[in-house]
Amino acid sequence: MDALNITHAAVGVIQREYGLVLLGERPVGKPWAGYWEFPGGKVEVDETPSQALLRELQEELGITVKSYYPWITRTFDYPAKLNSKGQLESPAKTVKLHFFIVTEWNGEPHGLENQTLSWQSPDNLTVSPMLPANAPIFAALTLPNIYAITNLNELGASLFFERLKIALENGLRMIQVREKQLSGADLLAFTQQVVSIANPYGAKVFLNSAEVASASNLIANAGATGAHFTSSALMQLQTKPAGMLCGASCHSREELVHAQALGLDYVMLSPVLATRTHPDAETLGWDKFSELIAGYSLPVYALGGMEKSDLHQAKLQGAHGVAMLRSIWLSD
Length: 332
Hints:
Elements: E1 6-14, E2 21-25, E3 36-37, E4 40-42, H1 49-61, E5 64-78, E6 81-82, E7 88-90, E8 93-106, E9 116-120, H2 137-141, E10 146-149, H3 152-155, H4 157-169, E11 174-177, H5 184-198, E12 204-209, H6 212-222, E13 226-229, H7 231-236, E14 245-250, H8 253-262, E15 266-269, H9 285-293, E16 300-303, H10 311-316, E17 321-324
């Protein structure tokens, strides 16, 4: 598709407490009337997507945005749409949607274009139908901003499970089991214990794996949420495994592109900063990190030397969140 034939749009994911997001129903007289969508609109010739976001939310909702983050970018091919009389209502077009997470604003949102508004939970929508380009976004919004990687090897079982319970009490909702020193029955038993502790909190548990088959069996037996593939395993995948959420480790543009082509649910990109394990390893730094994920369609977690205090910086660079191996398990 020629870039000149792509319509760019800025889209605001306006978040309220408890993760609620604002949706609007397209009014009668507009194409796709009756469908629900995130607020936003077309990026004009003389605008950046962020400038369009601020203008559109002011015009549509009457709010002044105070704080926002760049997020994911998705391209969607809208088919031609006919009205009830068989007449062309909206021609086929390709839209590039620049999503932003909006966290602070002045004013109370009102439907200034005759649209009905509704605050919705991304994992429990009560309105429909959803505008096709917006529908895949809700799965990404259910992924927490903080992602913990288990550290049994350094902490030992007793201390690790003590810290796991503390972290869950403090709001941790996404965990990756990565214990390369364990295999077979030991790995299964450890994963089952993590899952049993995490389940009452509604936390997602992913299993780090280098193979699809072994991951599928372990996930089924342990009751985990899904698989997280190593970068080498990622590059061997031809299709996304069915029936489970999937993420992968990435260290290069090539790996990011492959994960995107597979339609994975998220990726980790590392190393952003120096780590205790590999203090002399070459790092991406925030500038390179931001460059690699500019215009990317999957949620990205920054990994490598991360702490909770890095979340704001990571989100400013377009990340969905941060992943941590050590600092997340420090006692508060």
